[in-house]
């Protein structure tokens, strides 16, 4: 078993380094004092937060040995700030939610404890209960550092009424799947002919995440990989990157999709029935259902050599405690395992439950349209691991700043790809501030 030797000074230096990178900035919350109270921190709000609160109530009702109490913190940097500083000060909650893509930034500084896989297996949670991409992403340095609750991939929502009018639904009422770039562009043009707005709604202006999610899907579908080794240089397949950006430019022709659009306007266009397809995350599904649209959902089609879809996962982690209570630690395992078994309800929020006994159940199979994109869990691609990547970090926004001009103007994307690589090389050339002894490479 890999052991990380740390002390209070290292805790604090790692957390401060994350703050200095523009990813963190805040202070810790009040520690738990009741040894039978299991403190649970997360960043889930809106409909997700309501669903999570209901699941917590169910688990609490089923167990007499503990009561899990949730603390909900603001999404993004404020949340990750408090979580890092709580671990640095030894005042962390028993369990917390993190995006799986952020875990590589926390392990080097000793801010997370690994899960005991044997103990977890005794509660029915292990490799056999997860898809390979999700289970692999849960590990770092051979240790299990996160237990995924879900996968939330970048998908397509589609208006069944408009798609039926365009004649692009199959015999089961599902969207026909394109198998090449040309086929998908042709599909977009057919849909634009029956839409008041555009065939496809895709907003990218002002937000690097939307650009990155589609780009990385297309990039990885070409069999390309991206590696960010500490010290550099960044390993990027520039030909595949240019190919992905050129396809995105073809989509943004003013007919298939608006040449210049932001995420909010794209969502509004689809929500008001003016477009047939929306590129978005699974979390927008409940919103569209509430709008009264007869909405379907599908994984982004494989238009290159292999299936791949960008995603992240909400995952359970064990924030580092200086003196963890053994009884509460085992109760944490029971809490997480029980909540996973009840995660069919989590699918109502659009997410794909990561726990296979749920997604392989008959109950889940009857859940439409969620079951129609459950296969995406077998083809997920997460941010390339590095201490500075992941949801809520600056990585995706920096990518967007480099490529947005090429998407807006339709100019040669090669200089944009080269700019991305230069930016990454500059970051990688600097010491990893969360790994003072240089022991880790994400």
From TrEMBL:
Cross-referenced InterPro entries, in alphabetical order? Bact_solute-bd_prot1 (IPR050490), SBP (IPR006059), TAT_signal (IPR006311)
Q: Which organism is it from?
A: Zhihengliuella flava
Entry keyword set: Signal, Sugar transport, Transport
The signal peptide stretch is: 1-28
Pfam families assigned to the protein according to its UniProt record, in alphabetical order:
SBP_bac_8
Q: Give the protein name, as stated in the record.
A: Multiple sugar transport system substrate-binding protein
Q: Does the keyword Repeat apply?
A: no
**Superkingdom, taxonomy of origin:** Bacteria
């Amino acid at each position: 078993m890999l052991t990380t030797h740390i002390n209070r000074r290292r805790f604090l230096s790692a957390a401060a380094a994350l703050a200095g990178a523009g990813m963190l900035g805040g202070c810790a919350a009040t520690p738990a004092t009741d040894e039978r109270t299991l403190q649970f921190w997360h960043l889930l709000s809106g409909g997700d937060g309501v669903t999570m609160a209901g699941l917590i109530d169910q688990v609490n009702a089923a167990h007499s040995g503990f009561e899990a109490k949730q603390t909900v913190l603001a999404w993004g940097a404020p949340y990750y700030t408090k979580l890092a500083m709580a671990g640095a000060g030894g005042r962390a909650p028993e369990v917390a939610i993190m995006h799986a893509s952020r875990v590589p930034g926390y392990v080097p500084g000793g801010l997370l404890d690994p899960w005991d896989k044997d103990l977890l297996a005794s509660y029915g949670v292990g490799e056999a209960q997860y898809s390979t991409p999700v289970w692999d992403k849960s590990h770092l340095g051979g240790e299990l550092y996160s237990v995924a609750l879900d996968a939330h991939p970048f998908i397509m929502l589609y208006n069944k009424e408009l798609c039926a009018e365009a004649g692009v639904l199959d015999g089961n009422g599902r969207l026909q799947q394109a198998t090449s770039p040309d086929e998908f562009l042709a599909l977009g043009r057919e849909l634009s002919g029956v839409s008041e707005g555009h065939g496809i709604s895709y907003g990218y202006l002002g937000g690097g995440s939307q650009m990155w999610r589609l780009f990385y899907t297309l990039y990885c579908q070409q069999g390309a990989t991206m590696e960010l080794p500490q010290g550099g240089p960044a390993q990027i397949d520039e030909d595949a990157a240019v190919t992905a950006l050129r396809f995105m430019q073809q989509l943004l022709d003013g007919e298939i999709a608006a040449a210049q659009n932001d995420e909010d306007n794209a969502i509004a266009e689809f929500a008001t029935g003016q477009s047939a397809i929306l590129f978005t995350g699974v979390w927008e599904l409940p919103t569209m259902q509430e709008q009264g649209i007869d909405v379907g959902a599908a994984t982004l089609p494989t238009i290159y050599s292999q299936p791949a879809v960008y995603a992240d996962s909400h995952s359970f982690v064990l924030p580092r405690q200086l003196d963890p209570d053994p009884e509460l630690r085992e109760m944490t395992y029971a809490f997480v395992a029980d909540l996973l078994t009840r995660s069919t309800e989590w699918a109502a929020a659009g997410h794909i439950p990561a726990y296979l006994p749920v997604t392989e159940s008959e109950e889940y199979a009857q859940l439409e349209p969620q079951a129609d994109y459950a296969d995406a869990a077998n083809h997920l691609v997460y941010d390339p691991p590095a201490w500075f990547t992941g949801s809520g970090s600056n990585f995706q926004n920096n990518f967007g700043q480099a490529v947005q001009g090429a998407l807006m103007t339709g100019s040669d994307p090669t200089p944009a790809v080269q700019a991305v690589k230069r930016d990454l090389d500059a970051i990688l050339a600097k010491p990893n501030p969360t790994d003072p002894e240089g022991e880790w490479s994400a």
